[in-house]
Amino acid sequence: MSETCNPSKVSQGYSIQVVRSASDTDSLITLENFYNSGAKIEGVVTGNRVAFPAQSFAAYTFSGNGTVFTKKESTERFIELTYIVQVTPGSFADTCQAKAIIQE
Q1: Residue 89, preceding peptide bond in cis (omega within 30° of 0)
Q2: CB 53 within 8 A of CB 62
Q3: Which CATH class is domain 2-102?
């Protein structure tokens, strides 16, 4: 995943794993190693949109949304995310944008 955050100005690349729920009818996914922190967060997929309600891990609270899409030129699928990382306790918050290839 390629990630850029502000105001921290952190730009990093790291690996995440996107895991679908075992149920065919369930629209939940889990992203493992979110924010390169080891966090596992859950998202709800509706169509090609993903929503991540506020979830806490260690000193972080994550929330945001994203889009899943397929490149027209290939069959590669991607997920693009925009999210807020609140460092707790405290008032520091990063707004991040990230893009990852979904390997199936």
Answers
A1: yes
A2: no
A3: mainly beta
Helix or strand or coil: residue 13? strand
Report CA 60 to chain centroid distance, whole Å.
14
- DSSP class of residue 104 equals -
Query: Can you give the residue ranges of every domain in the chain?
Result: 2-102
Cβ atoms of residues 26 and 12 within 8 Å? no
- For the chain, 104 residues long, the average pLDDT of each consecutive 10-residue run is 91 87 76 92 92 93 92 81 87 89 71
pLDDT value for 69: 85
Q: Note the pLDDT of residue 104.
A: 60
Tell which residue, 36, 4, 43, 39, has the closest CA to residue 20: 43
